[in-house]
C-alpha cells in the first residue's frame, strides 16, 4: 500500500516586507511541508514578492504571490509574526482568531516581569495577551510548548544564552559575567535610519547599558540553569549586513579544570544539530566567526580557559538562526516534522 502523502501546513507570514519576513518567506519557499497561504504587508499590499524582496523574484514558488492587508488573513495552521516590536499586541486578537498557532519573532512577549515589560515593551504592557506566550529556545526549552502562542528569543540574547548555558548549567563559573555583543546592520530592521555612509568602515558603540535583551538573558538563563546572573551586557555595531558575535568573560570556580569546561559544553550540545561546539580552538580561524555561519541556521560556540579565566565566543546569523531560521526550526518541532526541514546548514562565502 502506498504511503499517504503528508498534508502541507498552511502558513501565513505577517509583517512580511521586512528583512526577517523576507527570510521567513525564502526558507518556506524551500520547505517541503509548507504551503505559503498568506503574506501581509500593509504598505506593500498588492505588490508581488519580487517588488519588495528582489532577491526572491527568481524563485518559481514566488510567482503570483502578493502581499495583502492583514484584515484578509484566512484560517491557517501557523502564523509567523515578523512585525516590528510593539506592533503585534494590537493585532493579536485577529491572529488568535484565524491561526491555530502564532510564532512571534519580535520581542513583545518574551519577558514576564511587569516592570521589565513596561520598561522595554510599553505597547505590550498596554495590550497584554489573553493567552500566555511560551518562551522557546529549541535546543534548551524542556519539551514542546503546549500552548498556541510561542515567542522566539532575541538574536543577541540567544547568542549569549548559547555561549553561557553549559557553563552555568554545570555550575562551573561565578555568576559575574561580562558580555560584549556585536551585531550587523540588519539587527536594526529594514526601517533603520542609520545612513550607510556612517556605518561603512566604522565600528561603534550601540548600547553599553540597559539593552532590552539583558533582562531576557537573565530570565532565560535563570529558567534553564537556576543561576541568577550579575550581568554586564554591552552591544556594538559592526560594518556588516548580518551576523552576531558574542564574547563572554567569566571566572571559573575554585578547583574547576579546563577539561571540566570542555566536557560541559560537549554534554550540553550533544545531538543538537544546529549548535556546534568548536573543538579545542588553537588558531584564530578555529574560533566561531561570521564567515562560518552567515547564510546558515548554525550557531557556533567555542570556549577558552587559562588560569581560571573563561572566555566563550559564539556566532550566528541574526536573520536565520537568530530569527527566521529559529522560528522555522520551532515550527518543525511543534508540528512533528524533521527539525532540519527547509533549513540551511552551510554558510555562504565570500
UniProtKB/TrEMBL annotation:
<keyword id="KW-0963">Cytoplasm</keyword>
<feature type="domain" description="Semialdehyde dehydrogenase NAD-binding">
    <location>
        <begin position="10"/>
        <end position="148"/>
    </location>
</feature>
<dbReference type="InterPro" id="IPR000534">
    <property type="entry name" value="Semialdehyde_DH_NAD-bd"/>
</dbReference>
<comment type="pathway">
    <text>Amino-acid biosynthesis; L-arginine biosynthesis; N(2)-acetyl-L-ornithine from L-glutamate: step 3/4.</text>
</comment>
<dbReference type="InterPro" id="IPR000706">
    <property type="entry name" value="AGPR_type-1"/>
</dbReference>
<keyword id="KW-0560">Oxidoreductase</keyword>
<keyword id="KW-0521">NADP</keyword>
<comment type="function">
    <text>Catalyzes the NADPH-dependent reduction of N-acetyl-5-glutamyl phosphate to yield N-acetyl-L-glutamate 5-semialdehyde.</text>
</comment>
<dbReference type="InterPro" id="IPR036291">
    <property type="entry name" value="NAD(P)-bd_dom_sf"/>
</dbReference>
<keyword id="KW-0055">Arginine biosynthesis</keyword>
<comment type="similarity">
    <text>Belongs to the NAGSA dehydrogenase family. Type 1 subfamily.</text>
</comment>
<protein>
    <recommendedName>
        <fullName>N-acetyl-gamma-glutamyl-phosphate reductase</fullName>
        <ecNumber>1.2.1.38</ecNumber>
    </recommendedName>
</protein>
<dbReference type="InterPro" id="IPR050085">
    <property type="entry name" value="AGPR"/>
</dbReference>
<dbReference type="InterPro" id="IPR058924">
    <property type="entry name" value="AGPR_dimerisation_dom"/>
</dbReference>
<dbReference type="Pfam" id="PF01118">
    <property type="entry name" value="Semialdhyde_dh"/>
</dbReference>
<feature type="active site">
    <location>
        <position position="155"/>
    </location>
</feature>
<keyword id="KW-0028">Amino-acid biosynthesis</keyword>
<dbReference type="Pfam" id="PF22698">
    <property type="entry name" value="Semialdhyde_dhC_1"/>
</dbReference>
Amino acid at each position: 500500500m502506498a504511503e499517504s502523502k503528508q498534508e502541507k501546513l498552511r502558513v501565513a507570514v505577517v509583517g512580511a516586507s521586512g528583512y526577517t519576513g523576507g527570510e521567513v518567506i525564502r526558507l518556506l519557499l524551500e520547505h517541503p511541508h509548507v504551503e505559503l497561504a498568506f503574506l501581509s504587508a500593509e504598505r506593500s499590499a498588492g505588490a508581488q514578492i519580487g517588488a519588495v524582496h528582489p532577491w526572491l523574484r527568481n524563485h518559481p514558488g514566488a510567482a503570483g504571490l502578493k502581499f495583502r492587508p492583514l484584515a484578509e488573513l484566512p484560517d491557517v495552521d501557523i502564523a509567523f509574526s515578523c512585525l516590528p516590536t510593539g506592533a503585534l499586541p494590537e493585532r493579536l486578537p485577529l491572529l488568535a482568531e484565524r491561526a491555530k498557532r502564532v510564532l512571534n519573532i519580535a520581542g513583545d512577549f518574551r519577558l514576564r516581569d511587569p516592570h521589565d515589560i513596561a520598561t522595554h515593551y510599553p505597547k505590550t504592557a498596554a495590550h497584554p495577551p489573553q493567552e500566555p506566550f511560551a518562551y522557546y529556545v529549541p535546543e534548551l526549552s524542556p519539551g514542546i510548548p503546549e500552548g498556541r502562542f510561542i515567542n522566539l528569543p532575541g538574536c543577541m540574547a540567544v547568542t549569549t544564552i548559547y555561549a553561557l548555558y553549559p557553563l552555568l548549567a554545570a555550575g562551573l563559573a561565578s555568576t559575574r559575567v561580562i558580555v560584549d555583543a556585536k551585531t550587523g546592520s540588519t539587527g536594526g530592521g529594514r526601517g533603520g535610519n542609520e545612513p550607510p555612509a556612517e556605518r561603512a568602515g566604522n565600528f561603534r558603540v550601540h548600547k553599553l547599558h540597559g539593552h532590552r535583551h539583558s533582562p531576557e538573558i537573565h530570565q532565560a538563563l535563570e529558567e534553564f540553569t537556576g543561576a541568577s546572573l550579575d550581568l554586564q551586557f554591552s552591544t556594538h555595531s559592526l560594518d556588516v549586513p548580518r551576523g552576531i558575535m558574542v564574547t563572554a568573560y567569566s571566572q571559573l570556580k575554585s578547583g574547576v579544570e579546563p577539561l571540566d569546561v570542555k566536557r560541559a559544553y560537549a554534554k550540553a550540545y550533544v545531538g543538537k544539530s544546529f549548535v556546534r561546539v568548536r573543538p579545542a580552538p588553537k588558531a584564530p580561524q578555529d574560533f566561531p566567526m561570521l564567515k562560518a555561519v552567515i547564510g546558515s541556521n548554525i550557531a557556533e560556540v567555542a570556549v577558552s580557559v587559562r588560569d581560571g579565566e573563561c572566555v566563550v565566543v559564539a556566532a550566528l546569523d541574526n536573520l536565520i538562526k537568530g530569527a527566521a531560521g529559529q522560528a522555522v526550526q520551532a515550527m518543525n518541532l511543534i508540528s512533528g516534522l524533521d527539525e532540519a526541514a527547509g533549513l540551511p546548514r552551510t554558510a555562504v562565502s565570500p
